[in-house]
Amino acid sequence: MTKNILISGASIAGPALAYWLREHGYDVTVVERAPAPRPGGYKIDVRGKAMEVLRRMGLVDEVRRHHTDMRGGAFLDGKGRTIVEMDADTVGFRDPTDVEVLRGDLARILLAATQGVEYVYGDSITAITEDDHGVAVTFERSLPRRFDLVIGADGLHSTVRALAFGPEERFLRSLGHHIAIFSVPNMLDLDRWETIQAEKGRTLNVYSTRQDSQAKAAFMFTSPAQQYGRRDTARQQQILAEVFAEHGWIAPNLLAAMPDAPDFYFDGMSVVEMEHWSTGRVALVGDAAYSPSPASGQGTSLALVGAYVLAGELAAAKGDHMAAFVAYEERMRHFVTVNQAQSKNIKRMVAGSGLMLRLNALMMRLMPYMPGAAKIMDKVLAEIREVSNAIDLPDYESRPGSRTEAVRNGS
């Protein structure tokens, strides 16, 4: 009987999976490269069936208490003048039932819900060796250990995926864009407001979820293959500074603040496409298995739903991990496919030509006066609503006395 499971990664998918495995009676260990839980972070959306997963965890009210409470946003022209203002749900293409939170807040809530789970911070898996009885795992710092299963929930550049499936180049489909996000002084004095300014091939978004000394600056840009080390922050910042050197508006001030940012993030925007998400006693969940890219806005929802389904199928298979992994893939595949297709939004987020840039600006200016604008928005929202709910979630049986059973019984 499979009882002892190692998860790599403690962001969203990892703690969510740990929660559900624990609810089904498994012993769980989570290993995380970062030295401690990471606070703050950028804002993320939870939609559709992912909200249902949070409801079954009894966490919806807690997550909603940490809603970003954004008031809205403005699209600006090249000189920083307002073209149009919109409410927050319109800017984010959200239903009222969806929720927007900071990544760090959601991660902290999930972490607090995983009582009884062992977390090992500041460490990483270096080797995985399978035999008929389990998996021998070695670590960078800890002593070797044995587990029944190993699950990679360690993101786009998954270590587990590389060890068990091969180089990431086999699975990452680049969207031809990069993204960078980091904290900056709130030089625009924003209060739950975001400002979006675009030029050909690049878009800049500055927002603050509350009126304080900090804001977030998000840069997206069209990019050919760039040669840089994934942890070479100096080279990444050089690339960003070169691309946005002539961007205008507030870009020079943001770039000047970049070297002092404690949370600089930079990466290519890619979709992870794999024929299978498991091999032997190793499986993947979340971005490690099926990242839809930040352009989709669906990565967090896929992670939460995938964690729920993987844990549930393992419990339903009663120790037959091979059958569980097959059922997990069969149940999740369509949901993953339609949500990954939302990566097409990158064409809306970053104008690929001067003509597209001008057309987008014209549409923005005319939107308040267009009688069909509401119908256009409804059509976009309907598609997002459809893909966010494109899976049936079984009501997996939990162990007696579990938190899930209490939530189900309303106690």
Automatic annotation (TrEMBL):
Protein source organism:
Kutzneria buriramensis
Q: Which ranges carry the FAD-binding domain?
A: 5-318
Gene3D superfamilies associated with the record: D-Amino Acid Oxidase, subunit A, domain 2, FAD/NAD(P)-binding domain
What superkingdom heads the lineage? Bacteria
Q: Name one GO molecular function term.
A: FAD binding
Pfam families registered for this protein in UniProt: FAD_binding_3
Name listed for the protein in its UniProt record: 2-polyprenyl-6-methoxyphenol hydroxylase-like FAD-dependent oxidoreductase
